[in-house]
Amino acid sequence: MSIAPETSVHPALRIAVIGAGYWGPNLARNFAMSTDWELVAICDRDLDRASALARKTGEPAVVASVEELLREHTIDAVAIATPARTHHGIAMAAIAAGKHVLVEKPLADNSIHGREMVEAARAAGTILMADHTYCYTPAVLKIRDLLASGELGEILYIDSVRINLGLVQPDVDVFWDLAPHDLSILDFILPGGLKPVAVSAQGADPLNSGKSCVGYLSLPLENGALAHIHVNWLSPTKIRQMVIGGSRKTLVWDDLNPQQRLSVFDRGVDLGRQEAVRDDVEDRKGAMISYRLGDTWSPALSEFEPLGLMVSEYAASIRAGRPAPTDGESALRVLSVLEAASRSLAEGRATRDEVNHPILEEAL
Amino acid sequence: MSIAPETSVHPALRIAVIGAGYWGPNLARNFAMSTDWELVAICDRDLDRASALARKTGEPAVVASVEELLREHTIDAVAIATPARTHHGIAMAAIAAGKHVLVEKPLADNSIHGREMVEAARAAGTILMADHTYCYTPAVLKIRDLLASGELGEILYIDSVRINLGLVQPDVDVFWDLAPHDLSILDFILPGGLKPVAVSAQGADPLNSGKSCVGYLSLPLENGALAHIHVNWLSPTKIRQMVIGGSRKTLVWDDLNPQQRLSVFDRGVDLGRQEAVRDDVEDRKGAMISYRLGDTWSPALSEFEPLGLMVSEYAASIRAGRPAPTDGESALRVLSVLEAASRSLAEGRATRDEVNHPILEEAL
Amino acid sequence: MSIAPETSVHPALRIAVIGAGYWGPNLARNFAMSTDWELVAICDRDLDRASALARKTGEPAVVASVEELLREHTIDAVAIATPARTHHGIAMAAIAAGKHVLVEKPLADNSIHGREMVEAARAAGTILMADHTYCYTPAVLKIRDLLASGELGEILYIDSVRINLGLVQPDVDVFWDLAPHDLSILDFILPGGLKPVAVSAQGADPLNSGKSCVGYLSLPLENGALAHIHVNWLSPTKIRQMVIGGSRKTLVWDDLNPQQRLSVFDRGVDLGRQEAVRDDVEDRKGAMISYRLGDTWSPALSEFEPLGLMVSEYAASIRAGRPAPTDGESALRVLSVLEAASRSLAEGRATRDEVNHPILEEAL
Amino acid sequence: MSIAPETSVHPALRIAVIGAGYWGPNLARNFAMSTDWELVAICDRDLDRASALARKTGEPAVVASVEELLREHTIDAVAIATPARTHHGIAMAAIAAGKHVLVEKPLADNSIHGREMVEAARAAGTILMADHTYCYTPAVLKIRDLLASGELGEILYIDSVRINLGLVQPDVDVFWDLAPHDLSILDFILPGGLKPVAVSAQGADPLNSGKSCVGYLSLPLENGALAHIHVNWLSPTKIRQMVIGGSRKTLVWDDLNPQQRLSVFDRGVDLGRQEAVRDDVEDRKGAMISYRLGDTWSPALSEFEPLGLMVSEYAASIRAGRPAPTDGESALRVLSVLEAASRSLAEGRATRDEVNHPILEEAL
Fold this sequence. Notes:
Largest interface: A-B, 69 and 69 residues
Oligomer: homotetramer
Number of domains of chain A: 2
Domain Gfo/Idh/MocA-like oxidoreductase N-terminal (chains A, B, C, D): 13-132
Pfam families (chains A, B, C, D): GFO_IDH_MocA, GFO_IDH_MocA_C3
Strand content of chain A: 25-35%
Shape of chain A: globular
Keywords (chains A, B, C, D): NAD
Order of helices and strands of chain A: EHEHEHEHEHEHEHEEEEEEHEHH
Number of helices of chain A: 10
InterPro entries (chains A, B, C, D): Gfo/Idh/MocA-like_OxRdtase_N, Gfo/Idh/MocA_Oxidoreductases, GFO_IDH_MocA-like_dom, NAD(P)-bd_dom_sf
Protein name (chains A, B, C, D): Oxidoreductase, Gfo/Idh/MocA family
Distance between the termini of chain A: 26 Å
């Protein structure tokens, strides 16, 4: 699959944005600008808010309820940017009405709801897509290409760090706040998606805020590889870095370095094949190891607005009748890992009062 | 305790260095240069190697065995730089002969041996010291001072990263190779030493080398704090960084940035006291949180050779009859955490063939 | 003088923005948001452009000419954001009508025009202010404070680098495009303003574009200090860095490092006083020199929109009847240095065909 | 010419090192280790110093004077590491005796002396080589290769910065202390050597130390290119960076970044050809400009000791009877530019008391 912005030759699809709060305006603006789409309506219980947004996005209709929207407007698709606990209800109604559905992350408030949405959309033959915006950035698209092309070889380890002085939030812990970014990216770039064989979380709440503010997530993958995510709300320095170690090359993504966001290192450790039978294990081990100290390469990245590409991909998926690049199943995998992480934390807490401890979780 | 190099007014103490291999020459050179010490003998089964070293360090005597050394030479102390599995035997013999003992890390090949050494030295009234060289660097001494002074407030989390393209070694995994540095530093800087309430390790051997090449170590501390260590032999970039988050300030130690090795950030999240009783939990939580965005300060560090200070501290501890700054108990704590980490890895492997998984370990 | 945003208790001053092209909208938006100001009119020959801007800024009147504006609208002040060659005519008309004038940089197309504007405003008792936006950023304000307080001691040298892959422009060379930023900042932060004793420019046009794309500007200051500016359109890496070396401390401003924009180094070279008469010159020189290797300090910076502060300062200057922080004379000094730089380049070119060479210029 | 360390199959050449002070030991050690050379003698008026050095380098003969050396020892070549003012006398005597000569930088105390040395060696048919050590580092060799291969296209500009908190020296100013490194590197990497069409220096002595502590050197090259060097003893931060802008690519050498010392940017500004005749100059100019925003590439560098390669190249040049890579003429060009810079500074001072000002100098 090639992901690229392109001009549409099709008639525009008709979309309504549901939710005019924090994220809805970004969606509405991008749908309004896209030649793939015609923004037909803004839906929000707060009609003032909906009207204010409508004025900035070409004056689509304003409606106060999803029922009204589905009943009175001819639309092909909806984009849901409401609180997570309402996603399931709205999406199920829209799917039942035969609409395609784009949902802001997380897909739903729990994976049971999420799975129902995925199955309903499949049964109805409509597209269910998750707005994993990061996946449509130039850097992540390039990483996905590099992994797909085999440039890095086999994946050995992935280490992701996403830390900064963050808002300690009332509803969610640091895992649910920050790790969805890392998890949705991993699911997007790994050929076959993110399918850890286990999930283990370590968290700390040293401020006694009632939720983890520092978190580590270990995700053993198949073939002995290990993905690890560090999320932290208490760090005075901001880091957004992912290292993807491969058997051929290693990629470093430093998202806060605009001058060299991606670096591909042709450096690594090679273990040779055990061609010769040797008596002395120590020598053999030593003999098998070699180092590559080759060039580093930093690919140029094009610049475009990720949300613009995302709405364009939504249209392309609908027209082609194929799953979206970040489809419902992808979002469901992310949700399941987050739930497994929470169970890992909670059962640790259950068995040992003072500290969170890791447990092995059957994931997914 | 103040740690500083000083000129001795005492008669020099008499030392022998045992082991003339990789590390012994560094020790011998520093003992030879020190006014606190008189280097009396070099002991190594390989007499050629011992003689070569003796020629560079003022021509001390050369002896082939510990027995001969203890029998025929008048010494106050020994410094042991032999393979780890021999530490216990040599140290016990030296202690039995009433000598003070400095041991290269690790203290011993297992904690039972290590504990015997600690107890024997205590019973004999001799000093048992570990050569945790990193603890005598200007940066670590400054960090210890800052923590002791309360400058950072209460410790909330510690995140240490020590990764590079490393030698995949025949004998030890990445935990035993690299983590002793982080652990001995933590033990040195934390008031009261490193006393985790649990130890959990995640490792990966994606090259099928027979041992972990990528490792994560979680060490929940008392009061909800969490220490975490990332060690990695497969990283094309070299990082040596430790972040110590405190309730007042946060310290970042970037050992590869000679221009600003230490940074103390007066930035952080504060949770206020629940002075007012509020009905709405969400609001109350929100109201309690505030951010400090103050100055950053990078203290100047003096420059000196860590090993020079270490041998000087060894002499000072002997003369004062007080435990060394990195004494046997400290080294035993480090050893115990490493053993707990290995058990964590092994039991995971036992219960699940393909991946290492974390387990909760009673530590120490 | 303390520069700080504050809420106004005065009736709003009435302003018109002249020019609705590239920069005018930024000015109009900030005047519209300010409680100090009432945006009365947008003036542009292109009425469509003016109307479009008016719709976004609270629907002020739209007028097509400065004459109409001055004749038909009651205003206190104007803000001019038209091409540089028109600044003089518009400003002189506005001053003649008793209006205060804010001018986008450069003040005028030449210093004769600029001087007329300064003198006319002085005679009329109106405020003439230059929109040197950079001077109202948190970093530059902090630098100005540090220099004013004597924190750095006496200024020894200033080295400013402003390079990136820039637009090779049809009208101006790299000096006129980029150096105004550095020069207006220098004028703002140096106590007494920028008063070089000479101006010397070196430029290169290796692409044969007809104008310098790489430029160096040397500005010897009083007391033996030297300011130097490097501007470059052809650099693949982007650097915005200014080093201000003082006799007590040295400040480094790295504008592209949001995590540590300012660093104050308590490091430097000290030459002692020649208290003792010594025969041996070499020893004496050696003896007089010492080094400070003290702490580094990075002050926290507040965050606000520079243009918001600038329009607020414009109002405050008018109300207090005092010169603006970046007044007409400041802008005239900047203009004069740029003209001297051009003469330095041109006379070099005149006497030597192939290369630009430096000449000494009587400045200002 | 390919520069690479190789094992010699020739009989070793016989060398004497003259001068056992600061730099001589480095030379003696490398000659002693080389299979190309036999270190025959150490020559120093201070026989104790010479003897101490001889003990560490295989016990060559020790002699007190050059006359004695040339009279009593069979040697092929000498290496001179004595104070600059003695280079001429020693070298002329050695050349007269038919010896090859390696001279520590600077070649001589003035260019008249230097020229005599070059001409004497040419007449005698002996090799005169300058120890421009930096030119034998992996980074500089790679840069030279890249320029020779045309990878960067035509050189547009070179900007070199070499600043740190330096020792204010009794004998030399910052130009003579630091710029020889930059100049010898430029001479080495530029195809055809360093041949500026003018030399202009700006210096500042804000500490009143009697010599420039901050210096800028402008070196217009042929074809409109410009080289510029910034040297500074008063900078609290250490920078060693050279940018070489080419018409095809731009190279950045950051010598203090061991993880990415060289970066080659496929980024730049292109001015197209004026294929179409256009009326509107402004549009035409605009149309002609385009930007390349391609990949960045960081070549791997091998690791070896530069001095080891240098002594090996000395031997290879002698055996092949070809000029050394850093031959006497190269050193003479460097010396001439330094002298021109000093004249530029001095004449400025003569005509204007307070400040150094730039003058155009006929160079070389």
